[in-house]
Design goal:
With 227 residues, the protein is mainly alpha-helical. Helices cover 59% and strands 11% of the residues. It is built from 11 helices and 3 strands; from the N terminus they run ααααααααααβββα. The protein has a 3-stranded antiparallel beta sheet. The N and C termini lie far apart (54 Å).
Amino acid sequence: MTKSIQQLQDTIGYKFHNLVFLEVALTHSSYANEVKHQLKYNERQEFLGDAVLSIIVSDYLFNNYTVPEGELTKLRAAIVCEKSLDVMANKIHLGEYLRLGRGEEMTGGRTRPSIIADAFEALIAAIYLDSGIESARTFVLPFVTEMLEHEDSLFFKDYKTILQEIIQQNPEEKLVYKLVGEKGPDHDKRFVVDVMLNSNVIGKGEGRSKKNAEQMAAKEALELMGR
């Protein structure tokens, strides 16, 4: 176990002052239930890690995204959902370090997204408990910013597809997305796109990528159509 803990610390670039926090983060309830002496497992830390992650992500989005509250909420939800956390955790091979009970081990618990995602949140809490929120932020933000580089894939709805399906009901209608502007410096550029039905602008969108701007334009068009 000690070797694995050291390998994980090397992988995440963080050395714990109190290894107990890390050991708890890596301990699943199924393992704790199998040992004879009382052992702490990661569910309480997972609860705390969820809150720490939420504030870190919320703070980053608030300071870096000039979009309405509703869009901030959707982005945050997409980043902190189980699927995204599983992706983040697998980048550091977190499942390989977990302490699981025999039943969970035999039924694939080491690769189960729900277990991996919970352990990742518990790991965030472990870092937070060990040395505070700035250390947790330093650990988390590279995963978050990488997710946001593929921002268009985070949205729950593919607004472009929904809009296209509506317009296709009238074959003579033509839908076109047109880049009409760019804002900001190169490291924080934003694109502005109009979506046009024939020659009429029916929606405008802004985003960090052209794809995301197109999605936002389609979303506005749908809202104006009452969809």
